[in-house]
Structures are given as C-alpha cells and as structure tokens.
Amino acid sequence: MQQTLAGKNAHYYELLHENATYKMSEILKDKPFMALSPTDKAAILAYICNELLQNKAVLRQIENSLETMIQHKK
Asked: Rounded to 5 degrees, what angle do the CA atoms 8, 14, 39 make?
C-alpha cells in the first residue's frame, strides 16, 4: 500500500512539473514580469486571457458592453 501511494505521488509530482501553467509560475518566482523575455510575457498574457474568456461573468460583461455599444450607435 505504501509503495502504491509513493508511486502515485511521484507520478503526480512528475505531471505537475510537466504542466505549462506550473512552468510559467516557476518563471515568475525568479523574475518580475517586466524582466521576462517577450516570448514568456506573451505566453503568460495568452494564458490569462484564455482563463478570463472561460469565465461566465467576464463573458456576460463583454456581451452587455457589446449590446450597449450597438444601442449607442443607433
């Protein structure tokens, strides 16, 4: 039983370190955002934008803003 748990924990730890989100967080531990390379900055901003676009509240706000703009144009 103990060996199985250790194997599962080791596998989880291995998967965690292969995760792109984890790698981005590790980059930010060492350097501030402004000191990162343009490639790293773009990857982090893309990740944040994708996460926000999956949020229902953010999508609702965007839709409401679009409807308001359409009404103002009329």
From this structure: 155
d(CA 43, CA 57): 23
Nearest to 44 by CA among 57, 56, 55, 31: 31
Query: Which residues does 31 contact at the CB level (< 8 Å), separation at least 6?
Result: none
Distances, alpha carbon 25 to alpha carbons 13, 29, 34, 49, 70, in Å: 15, 6, 14, 16, 39
Q: What is the pLDDT of residues 38-52, one digit of tens each?
A: 999 999 999 999 999
Q: Which of 11, 33, 14, 32 lies closest to 22, judged by CA?
A: 14
- Contact by Cβ (8 Å): 25, 47: no
Q: Whole-prediction pTM value?
A: 0.61
CA 26 to chain CA centroid, Å, is 13
